[in-house]
Design brief:
The chain is α+β, with helices and mostly antiparallel strands and 427 residues long. It is built from twelve helices and 18 strands. It folds into two domains: 3-197 and 316-426, 3-Layer(aba) Sandwich (Aminopeptidase), CATH 3.40.630.10; 199-313, Alpha-Beta Plaits (2-Layer Sandwich). This is Metal-dependent amidase/aminoacylase/carboxypeptidase.
Length: 427
């Protein structure tokens, strides 16, 4: 039986999974607090007959389906939400607030990156694969990963003994697969050999001046002005120091200083985010940022050196050629012209690859092949209308307060894509 027939015969009704999606969307959990998503996934996998292991690196879990000799394929879905106030106006929109365990601050919470769709899709994939197990051989691992948004969930699962025989004993995969819903037309999927997601590095930098009365600036060292010079100067790195054929982004997302207008504060804090797609550019850009911050502080007469605190670091996502070509061929057969084998790289970053690069392999080292792809979640008609008007920026993107995939055909496409990819190695 071929993959298309397996899907027609064994893919379940998605109506129950649509209800799961809406419930998860209404009740999101911040990073490290993904309890509902984890409980929902674990209960479902157990009910299907998967061997379930929970509390891996926080709320992470795996469901194992051993089905005879063959390859082991690990499928990954992430589960956490974001501190965003939802503005979609949907009947199932999140109105939730919760205290973030990271800083103790109460925040609005929203699944603004589509991880609720990832969870719902993976649950349907798990049912499809167990119902069709008479048609394939091998082992499937459905992995639900927490804390992706802060770039530490995959690391935490590895550190907690995900692949350790004496701890969680996840079967060693031959290949690791993952996907992400993106602001592309629903029903479409995109693959790409090689670089697919950028590395991301974030820092909190505190610069030090000397505070005082706003009427006597000559007796102070103004960190606000210092920060302003740094912010402007950082924008020259990409335009003047990065090869125009390369891609890089330097963003200052937060500048905090002072409490009132008539006091020059003693310090300012800048939060910087960097995206790069090659190791060489990453090294160059990070070095330039540190050089500029140091030089501007010295030029302003700062009272001491800036304090650098790394806040997150995402690795590169570089799809394995043979693995990706295998999946791309299967996608082209299944999706036809709705599959783009030369899809543009993601604008964001991912910690997905760590689940593959940290796998103990047969040669005594680490690392197995992996592939990560995208599937669309935007209303196709609205997407096409925006494109015709030259206004694709009007299509809500991931992390936007307006981002909410149309449930269908997004969910059906995600299920098909993951099943087709998995069976390409199991069938």
């Amino acid at each position: 039986m071929d993959i298309q027939t397996i899907l027609k015969t064994h893919k379940p009704s998605l109506t129950p999974y649509e209800r799961v999606y809406k419930n998860l969307h209404q009740n999101p959990g911040l990073s490290l607090q993904e309890h509902l998503a984890a409980q929902t996934a674990a209960s479902h996998l157990s009910s299907l007959g998967y061997e379930v292991r929970t509390s891996i690196g926080g709320t992470g879990l795996i469901g194992i389906l051993a089905n005879g000799p063959g390859k082991t394929v690990l499928l990954r879905a992430d589960t956490d939400a974001l501190p965003v106030e939802e503005l979609t106006g949907l009947e199932y929109a999140s109105k939730k607030k919760e205290v973030d365990v990271e800083d103790g601050v109460e925040k609005h919470v929203m699944h603004a990156c589509g991880h609720d769709m990832h969870v719902s899709v993976m649950m349907a994939v798990a049912e499809t694969l167990i119902k069709s197990k008479g048609e394939w051989k091998g082992t499937v691992v459905c992995l639900f990963q927490p804390n992706e948004e802060r770039a530490v969930g995959a690391k935490a699962m590895i550190a907690d003994g995900l692949y350790d025989e004496k701890k969680h004993a996840c079967p060693i995969p031959d290949v690791v697969l993952g996907q992400h819903v993106m602001p592309l037309p629903a029903g479409h999927v995109g693959t790409r050999v090689g670089s697919f997601a950028s590395a991301a590095d974030s820092f909190r930098v505190t610069i030090y001046g000397r505070g005082g009365h706003a009427s006597q600036p000559h007796r102070t060292i103004d960190p606000v002005l210092m920060a302003a010079h740094i912010v402007v100067r950082l924008q020259t790195i990409v335009s003047r120091e990065v090869d125009p054929r390369e891609a890089a982004v330097v963003t200052v997302g937060s500048v905090v200083a002072g409490m009132t207008e008539n006091i020059i504060p003693g310090e300012a804090t800048i939060k910087i985010n960097v995206r790069t797609v090659t190791p060489e550019t990453r090294i160059r850009v990070l070095a330039a940022i540190k050089r500029i911050v140091k030089a501007e502080c010295e030029a302003s007469g700062a009272t001491k050196d800036p304090l650098w605190i790394p806040t997150s670091s995402f690795p590169f996502t570089i799809n394995h050629q043979e693995t990706t070509e295998t999946i791309a061929a299967a996608f082209s057969k299944h999706f036809g012209d709705k599959h783009d084998p030369e899809s543009a790289p993601l604008g964001g970053s991912e910690d997905f690859s760590i689940l593959a690069t940290e796998v103990p392999n047969k040669s005594g080292g680490k690392g197995v092949p992996y592939c990560y792809w995208s599937f669309g979640g935007s209303d196709p008609e609205k997407y096409e209308e925006a494109r015709n008007r030259g206004r694709l920026e009007d299509v809500p993107i991931n992390h936007s307060a307006y981002f909410a995939p149309v449930i269908q055909p997004t969910m059906g496409t995600g299920v098909d894509a993951m099943v087709v990819a998995a069976l390409s190695f199991l069938n």
